[in-house]
Specification:
The protein is an alpha/beta fold. Helices cover 27% and strands 21% of the residues.
Length: 173
């Protein structure tokens, strides 16, 4: 799998998708230090990588980047004053501890705790070819028809994306 991620840097009032506002890290560019250093200035963040939920030491839960693991503890130590929305396109990014069903210290929940207003993650293992379909549907809903995206629409757009995939008979692995 080619690890890639997209970081959008802008002011909170400037959510138009322009090339100058997008930062891409592909493959070996997606290092722990590179991504970590961009977190404080990112407003809309899309991460395509695998995640791991550590039920014994939740702060050791992590995102797998090119050269290592970006741990939850490191994310929580950042001041994310520009953060609005994060899409964690990877396995186990919203999976919590089965023994603590009321707890929400999973990667997506931690991103909200760290400062993002909204987050999308997965509770299941995701096939690499399914998440781009889900992401495209979500972003088409958020940005389509000239709309200015709103983090408050994220849950609805995810629901629309999943329902669209189901109606089209596309499997969610």
């Amino acid at each position: 799998m080619t690890l890639h991620m997209l970081l959008k840097k802008s002011t909170k009032s400037d959510l138009q998708l322009e090339k100058t506002n997008l930062i891409h890290f592909w493959g070996e560019q997606a290092t722990v230090s590179q991504v970590s250093s961009c977190l404080p200035t990112s407003t809309w963040l899309h991460l395509v990588c695998h995640g791991h939920q550590d039920s014994e030491e939740p702060l050791k839960s992590c995102l797998f980047l090119y050269n290592g693991e970006l741990e939850l503890g490191a994310i929580l130590s950042k001041k994310l004053s520009e953060a609005e929305f994060v899409f964690l396109s990877g396995c186990e990014t919203r999976m919590g501890d089965a023994n603590l069903t009321n707890e929400s210290m999973h990667l997506a929940g931690a991103m909200i705790f760290a400062g993002f207003c909204g987050a999308i993650g997965t509770m299941w293992g995701v096939a690499d070819f399914d998440m781009p379909k889900v992401a495209n549907l979500v972003y088409n809903e958020l940005f389509g028809r000239g709309k200015v995206p709103s983090v408050t629409e994220a849950a609805n757009t995810l629901n629309v994306a999943i329902q669209t995939m189901r109606k089209a008979g596309l499997p969610l692995h």
